[in-house]
Write a structure and sequence with these properties.
- With 164 residues, the protein is an all-alpha fold.
- It has two domains: 42 residues; 107 residues, no CATH class.
- Helices cover 65% and strands 0% of the residues.
- The relative contact order is 0.09.
- The mean pLDDT is 81.
């Protein structure tokens, strides 16, 4: 391989891994795949960890909480306390153009959290959730999905025990 080719592969490899092993054309696909898989599981500075299986919910939940608290704290507040659309004195919804600076900040934090959840939950899991308009409703629906999965497992185990 030419010096340029080797330098290209080593640069690309080092961008995705922490190891010093040089990348070669033979191991490039494997190294990139492992690196992307690692990013999905653990997240990185730009992206939170991804929930790939509902069975991994409790493990993912902690990592996601820590990531959001570190990188998107205002959004974390929306998730834990819930987001309420701003209203005027007559209890009517305020239009986006009439938002105060605080309303805009909270609205942006809520949208960011919804986006983070959508990015962090595998699409087939996300599509099974029944949720409302807020990030908190998505969060609670995911928790219910996990609990429902546990109940199904318990029921299957008890059925199997009855058969034996």
């Amino acid at each position: 391989m030419s010096d340029f080719g080797e330098e290209f592969y080593n640069t690309f490899y080092n961008a995705f891994t922490l190891e010093d092993t040089p990348i070669t054309p033979k191991n490039a696909t494997k190294v990139i795949s492992e690196s992307l898989s690692y990013d999905n599981v653990y997240g990185n500075h730009q992206r939170p960890p991804k929930l790939m299986n509902i069975e991994d919910y409790h493990w993912w939940y902690e990592r996601f909480e820590n990531w959001v608290q570190a990188y998107a704290y205002d959004s974390w507040i929306c998730l834990t306390l819930g987001y309420v659309k701003p209203r005027n004195e007559r209890r009517e919804l305020i239009t986006l153009k009439d938002f105060t600076a605080d309303d805009k900040r909270e609205h942006s934090a809520e949208l960011r959290m919804k986006t983070l959840l959508q990015q962090s939950i595998r699409e087939d899991i996300f599509s099974l959730l029944q949720y409302g308009e807020t990030s908190k409703s998505i969060w609670e629906a995911l928790k219910l999905k996990d609990e429902g999965g546990k109940d199904i497992k318990k029921n299957k185990i008890s059925l199997l025990k009855k058969r034996v």
